[in-house]
Design a protein that fits this description.
This protein has 326 residues and is mostly helical. The protein has twelve helices and no strands. It has one domain.
């Protein structure tokens, strides 16, 4: 598999933002009473796009150390800033419980004030897995990525009836993530072939899969398999769909996801309890905080990702000059 020399995929930025905004929308909706049903592919969709982008990032890195350094700069500064906000709005005593939500993958949430951190832990485990699988040779031949993708789907289908019937809702979401990540890996393998498709085909798959959500049965395996198809459509649309004529000046998708739950709780405690005002306040507040975070914290940190003193460039391989025959 050769390193990517293709330009950025501009639709990915907007798709990540839409997925990020869907999370405060759903959380604010559920906070005001009735729970929105169905398996919307927000977090799995993020992981699928990450499966594509981080494999690209690793191939274009100067080694595993450089890869993890870039990942640390991408997620670490805002992650730390989120705990500063927890201390400001909810007190220092709320930090241990919030941190526990992260390192227990969401199994501990009592007293935590930012209970979306579990998904970051899942993503970081998949980053490490990607590097280990790379060294094991799993990405040298696409057949092994297919094996990982198929095994994750079969394993999830076997596991789901046991955990879903016991109402382990959070574990259910975690079970969806490996197949989404490997779907992103596969899309990266086949990126050149996928880009050759006419934009109408990924658009039809993506729109059709989304339109079927209200019609799905409550059977969790059917919903999971449908969500897998929707995620494939999402990635393909990001790669080869019609170019959306919107260029985002700054990426705030990570911040919206990371900060929105704290904005939601502050707004709710302040008396904004009606559904649509709460949704609007949460989304606007999360976007505002995310813009500040992106400009003041995340972008300055990312400028260090290719710092030459830490990760010098590899020396080019010079082809030896053949002697000129006499």
């Amino acid at each position: 598999m050769k390193p990517s020399t293709a330009p950025r995929y501009p639709n990915f930025d907007l798709l990540r933002l839409i997925l990020a905004l869907s999370v405060p929308f759903l959380h604010a909706w559920n906070q005001t009473g009735s729970t929105m049903k169905g398996l919307f592919p927000a977090v799995p969709g993020f992981l699928a796009l990450s499966g594509f982008l981080v494999l690209q990032s690793y191939e274009n890195s100067r080694g595993p150390g450089h890869f993890f350094w870039k990942r640390l700069l991408r997620v670490g500064p805002a992650f730390i800033a989120s705990f500063v906000l927890v201390a400001i709005f909810f007190g220092i005593k709320a930090i241990p419980a919030t941190l526990a939500n992260w390192y227990t993958f969401g199994q501990s949430y009592d007293g935590g004030k930012n209970n979306v951190l579990w998904s970051l832990a899942c993503e970081e485990v998949l980053y490490v897995s990607l590097v280990l699988l790379w060294f094991a040779g799993a990405y040298k031949r696409v057949v092994w990525t297919w094996v990982l993708f198929a095994a994750s789907i079969v394993g999830t289908c076997v596991l789901l009836p046991h955990i879903y019937n016991r109402q382990f809702a959070h574990v259910v979401v975690i079970a969806f993530l490996p197949s989404a990540f490997f779907a992103g890996n596969l899309a990266y393998h086949y990126r050149e072939q996928l880009m050759k498709a006419k934009p109408i085909w990924p658009t039809c798959l993506f729109v059709a899969s989304l339109s079927l959500y209200p019609l799905l049965p409550r059977d969790v395996i059917t919903q999971y398999l449908h969500q897998t198809v929707a995620i494939i459509g999402l990635i393909w649309f990001g790669i080869a769909g019609p170019k959306i004529p919107i260029k985002l000046p700054v990426d705030i998708s990570y911040g919206v996801y990371l900060y929105h739950l704290m904005v939601l709780e502050v707004a709710y405690r302040s008396g904004v309890t009606e559904r649509f005002p709460l949704m609007a306040t949460t989304i606007v507040g999360a976007v505002a905080v995310s813009l500040l975070s992106a400009i003041l914290i995340e972008q300055p940190a990312l400028k260090l990702k290719n710092h030459p003193w830490r990760f010098p460039k590899k020396s080019p391989r010079v082809k030896p000059v053949e002697p000129v025959p006499a």
